[in-house]
Amino acid sequence: MQSKNLLELASAISSGAVRVVDLTFTLSPDFPVIVLPPEFGQAAPVRIQEISRYDGRGPAWYWNNVTFGEHTGTHFDAPIHWFTGKDLPNNAVDTMPPKDMIAPACVIDCSAQAARDADFVLTVPDVEAWETKHGRIPPRHWVLLRTDWSKKGWRDYANLRDDGAHTPGPNPAVMKWLVEERGVIGFGTETIGTDAGQAGHFDPPYPAHHFLHGAGRYGLQCLCNLDQLPPTGAVIVASPLKIQNGSGSPLRVIALVAST
Amino acid sequence: MIEPIKPPRRKNPLLRTRLPASPPRPRSRTSHGFTRAAAEGRFMLQRCAACGSFAYPAREACPSCLSVGLVFIDAPRRGMLLAETTARVPSDVYFRERAPWRIGLVKMDCGPSIVAHLHADCVEGAAVRMSLQLDKSGQAVAFAHPEGETPNMADDRQWREMTADPKFRRVLVTNGRNMIGQEAVAALKAAGAKTVFVGVAEPWRPFAGEERLRGQDGIEIVTLDAADEKSAADLAADIGGKVDILVNTTEYVRPGGLLDRRGTSIARDEIDQAYLGFINLAQAFGPAMRMRGADGINSSSAWVNILSVYALANWPAFGAYSASQAACLSLSHCLRAELRPGGVKVMNLFTGPVDTEWFQTVPPPKVAPRAIAQAIVSGLKGGLEEVYVGDVAEEIRQRLAANPKALERELDR
């Protein structure tokens, strides 16, 4: 690729010919986190503590100390996050290839189904139906599941009931198929996890985690603004923090979308 | 007869909020025997081990036989009001602002005569029942009550200075997600609190009892994650000037000590929830409470902590939790000193294992959350600082006082 093409991209971004869509929720203490049974270790919630704010603690400057778990807010899952990916090379956020941080996306709109059924699961026929309209999912593409879940209030967003969370996600067959038959680079959702709220009862449990990470692929969750992306053609920039041997991290996810 | 107090009207915003003044503080070291008794709601006097006579005020030697063997022990409360007087223009700022103020001389059945603050229904020549109370400077004073119940007794103006009665006050119960919090809300409401604000962290998580809290008159659910600095500050920005009593119902119990846990994640959570949560609440709500200590009928009056009695002596089965509670106990003494200028009491309730999920495998006796709630209310009404709820807490206290080393070995089981 010639450098002038890259400069053209930069000027297209600057002019607005290429739109930059922010797919990220604000990292804040209010945002729901994954809930595990209390006897398990828990993700530390997001905490923002002022160091100083133009005051006696620092008269001219404002800054904070921030603490959070690797899997809070809009965040990235690296293969090392799951037992299936624990022995893969370069499986953590600090060692993953930087080129994997930029990749195109296919956006599958299941917002209508998710509105009808909080436990909607994506299946192979659903994706095949999408492919008949938009073409076969090319290798090394993100598949992003649009459910409009990000537009809900936090309680409906987490949607916890006495038998667990009820949020949409993929079934085991489609995850295996996307990884093995379509070679996706990763799978992204608007919900708290890449897996459905009830995915602990699937076989295998948490199939998105199981198959993606077992094959060295990635997960993105708590995305928003997926409704602003075209079904194909958007380019996702997702570079997690370079945490030593990190299993994931909150990050800023943006999408580049050609305006025409 | 006491006129019942009326619900306070809204404040006139043209008037300055009066700052709290304190009654005289100085006491001898020996006199703090009364402070300890008052903090726990006991009536204790010095009694001579040699001749058996009671003494008052606190002395270094027995006024009857000059023995130095004077010991504070629980004493009979009954006496007779010999004489009374009304101070109309006292020189002390605190009493001047509250004049006229009645005091009297009480001849105790057990011997000594005591100068005491008087309940309005105390009559010269009649029997009285004596108590030791902590005044607005946190020091022990004697208070004479009529011997029997009288109408609207708790509404007495001078008595209310000694207590933190929830009647007509606005209370923040910091955590309404747990049973202790929910029972506290109900008990405080029943005790006449005007409003009970109930903190709920992470409102997106449903919790048991939520329906019952919602939609009740005088109960306002507010978002509060005490462990989050900003959450506490944000809530204080909204209601900080309306919190007259703060009841810290943070509850974060996890089993385990040091060696059978891996890493510090749980310990961090314990510290975040209990200790840093306490700091966040204190920094958010403390300054306004200290400033509003003399703000009328619904002046700010008390801060309540619910602590594990294992704050006093580590229970290794819940060893790290015990340590987090010990940190909170230490902090409570700091808070007590810092709220003192406002006349705001800090009341610590010590409990043994509570009948909740995290103590599921602990055999009884366990403390019912309702018993804690009732102890909160009676402690506030009595103006106490130290309350031991349930048999386990009381027993640990006694064993600690008798032999701390023995207790340490006994808890190591």
UniProtKB/TrEMBL annotation, chain A:
SUPFAM superfamilies: Putative cyclase. GO terms for molecular function: arylformamidase activity. GO terms for biological process: L-tryptophan catabolic process to kynurenine. InterPro entries: KFase/CYL, KFase_sf. Signal peptide: none annotated. This is Cyclase.
